[in-house]
Amino acid sequence: MTVAAMHSPEPLLKPVGVLWGVGSERSAQLARLHIHTVEDLLLHRPRRYEDRRHFRPIASLKLNEGVTTRGTVVAMGIKRFRRGTKSVFELILEDGTARLHCRWWNLPFMERYFEVGNDVVVFGKLNQLKPRTMDHPETEVVEAGEEQFLHFNRWTPVYPLTEGLPQRWLRSLIWRTLNQFEARIKDPLEGDWLASAPGFPQRVPSRAEAIRALHFPDTIEAVETARRRLALDEFVALQMQMRRRRETFESKAEALPCGGDNRLMKPFLSALGFKLTASQTRVLREIRADLRGAHPMRRLLQGDVGSGKTVVAACSALMAVESGYSAAVMAPTEILAEQHYRTLNRWFAPLNVPVELRTGSARIESSRPAAGARVVVGTHALLTSGCEIPRLGLVVIDEQHKFGVAQREQLVRKGRYPHLLIMTATPIPRTLGLTLYGDLDVSTIDAAPPGRGTVRTYVRPADRLERVWAFVRDQLAKGRQAYVVYPRVEDAGTGIKAVTREFEAVQRALAPHAVGLLHGRLPARARDEVMQAFREGRIRVLVATSLIEVGVDVPNATVMVIENAEQFGLAQLHQLRGRIGRGAHESHCILVSDADTDEARARLRVLEETTDGFRIAEADLKFRGPGELLGRQQSGMPDFRFGDLVRDLDLIQWARDAVKRLPCGKA
């Protein structure tokens, strides 16, 4: 298998203005559709297809049924109302069986497109029968000539348009351009690499065949085959880009020797008070091999909430310190950074390993000499120009999905190709793992530490809230603690509950137990005081926003109530639920929601049915899509025209394997 040019041959990169009939005005209209080159035009995906092989007689049309029909214009005109500010343009068609009234409200310019006697094709739905009427249907005037077969008697593509750009004109342009350039469309890889691609009913079409079937399919089934074929090219291009990036990185970067010698690790593990799980031990072996390797580690560590990633990060940091290098640990919130600082400082103080804290509101430095190895924990403050970390050997980024790709690279550049370990408690669907993180090695902690209590989840309507509070009071009376979570800080008049408005109501409902308030707009010192009181049990109930979804570890907290639960994503609800069940007691998560759509109710049922973070992540991807799930700007998510990250796992896996088989340096 050899490599052809990944980019299209030069003719396809020419601007659309070189095409016949495309002047400056049409070029500007196409640009609004992100069509700038010939290739962009050929990849402009139809939004749907109309079955124009069979025209329905007007007399047979039924209410609310999408149909294509055809007739001759027998009358037309504009009626104006309210001193000319409102209007309706009406077109009356006749086909020998009945008449059809087509109306366009407040679009008087439509009159310019028709004349009495025109033969007109109409696609739409009847909204009344007496007389038969369609409002705002799609129409095309049938013109005699060679191109008529493009628009009728076939599965006809209907494209996304912009103001002033006629559907028929764009369809004709794509037909002419395809005929002119089809022979120049090449597959991204040469040879028989396509033969083994999965999920194609007969044979895998070439890229040129797929583009033709995308626009002018013989059958509607051919459209999905074409989409999958073009998606395959997108996935191959992405995998090749990631492989080139990895090869370039490894050719330039020499690894720092950070594998350690166990002089700190052995006493650390002995003093922990618990034994690492087999899963944690396996992951640490993978990390140690990377830290001793020829190239800097680039590894993603994923593990469900409460699976024990922090201790793995601590062991990794000790390996770097044993080797004479510093480690940086970056967290997305001050609460999580401060918790990591407290935990690592408690663990490392007996080993005489200095731990420092750098956040926007706090800075705790070590008394060790500036040249000594240390562990520096912080938030985005670690990215500032004034934060220097001597002999940086390892960067650990926790909750990596909260950071952008650029921020990750900014921290790595503070050293000379330090090792990188990024961690997430939000399990990543396989399709996203292979695309967004395809250039990283992946480790998974797939078993929780022993001794954790069961977490049960319930969905309850808002009218059951009094019974929910009674249950919470009962748990508090048994000595447990609770969280109550709301989606907003302040009331915005949308009917969505906010912590500042509901705080007093929760106090009344759960009296006499002490209730604290926590949200991101509180001063840092006030947040710290509330969190410390909750950890110590002086506050029994914490009313908070999703600020607590990471970094809060209070084993005695066994109840979580989340109001307006439908406002949160599944992965976020799973993270919030991960704040309970961290001790030995049975825990309860109650999702209060009056969700009014089937999809919202189905999403919440997923939380009721499983605590498996990977199943939840796959469901979240299905319901919300990758852009909404990750945030396209934040994540660096690639923009696919044809690839579907919910359905195309087999193609993504195949593309990755195909690119892996390329000789080194050929990507």
Number of strands: 23
CATH architectural type of the domain at 265-445:
3-Layer(aba) Sandwich
Q: By CATH's scheme, which homologous superfamily of the domain at 265-445 applies?
A: P-loop containing nucleotide triphosphate hydrolases
Q: Strand sequence of the main sheet, in spatial order? A: 13-12-14-11-15-16-10-17
- Class from helix and strand fractions: alpha/beta
Describe this structure in words.
The chain is of the alpha/beta class and 667 residues long. Among the domains are: 54-153, OB fold (Dihydrolipoamide Acetyltransferase, E2P), CATH 2.40.50.140; 265-445, P-loop containing nucleotide triphosphate hydrolases (Rossmann fold, 3-Layer(aba) Sandwich), CATH 3.40.50; 455-627, 3-Layer(aba) Sandwich (Rossmann fold), CATH 3.40.50.300. Helices cover 34% and strands 19% of the residues. The longest helix has 32 residues, at 221-252. The N and C termini lie close together (11 Å).
